[in-house]
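Structure ticket #2291
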Amino acid sequence: LILLVNRKRSIRIISYVFSAAVLLIAADAFGQNVFHYNSGIDTLFYYERSLSANESSRMAPATSITLMILSLSFWLISAKKYFFHVIAQYCLHIVSAISLFTLIGYIYNLETLYKFFFLSSVAVHTAAMLFFLSVAASLIQPNIGITGLFTGNQPGNKMIKKLFPLLIVLVFLLGFIRQLLNQYDTIAQEYSIALLIVLFLFTCLLFIAIIAHQLNKTDFKKNEAEKTLKYLDLAGDAIIVIDKEGTIIFANIQTEKTFGYLKSDLVGKQVNVLIPNRFQYNHFELLKKFVAD
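Resolution: structure written out below.
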């Protein structure tokens, strides 16, 4: 993964070789479990003498599948076409989902979640490694897929980043409450289900209230800003308001007369469109320094 983000061609080739090796080993382990042959690759570096002739220390089939998907995504990330980047990102999301289900199974002691459709289970440390590796790899393309929901700078992205950690805590808390009620037979099963539904509804109501409050707060700030910006139209000079990335968010009427652009055409464009080419690079560097300070 570290080699993959390097721009040098020679380093990328090394990352391809490692990815291909993982893909072949995982495919071989999967084939051994499905077709019941023994290639001996699982005992190449480690051999457990305590295992019988019918047993094996090879990786679980579900682990093989996730490693194959992960290796494939590493190959597609470096492709030139955007279509392959999208496929790679969603392959990483699939690995994250499988490993997350496995971890949840271990947390709540639900065997069906970490054994999937095969008899052999995925080890908890393997699931943790796959989860963090797939999430880290998805950050190579931060604007694609589910990752883009958490890395964007729009108001919706900021709201998700604030609410998602709280949602995780509440969902896991509800799960533990349900498990404890069943474990100690505190109340009958049908009542515990009803209690869980009520708690879930209150949780949803809490999130709706938080979202409504955030939206109302954002709308209030927007209206106040629009009232303030209207006074700038009365100025005799051209006034342009930009964000920290250099995107124009407001231009007054005098700007139309000075530069010959309509206000509606300027909003959303980079301020560099109004700056001569020979000054654009220096302006970009100065803007970054100003924002940093």
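Closing remark: Confidence is low (pLDDT under 50) at residues 51-55.
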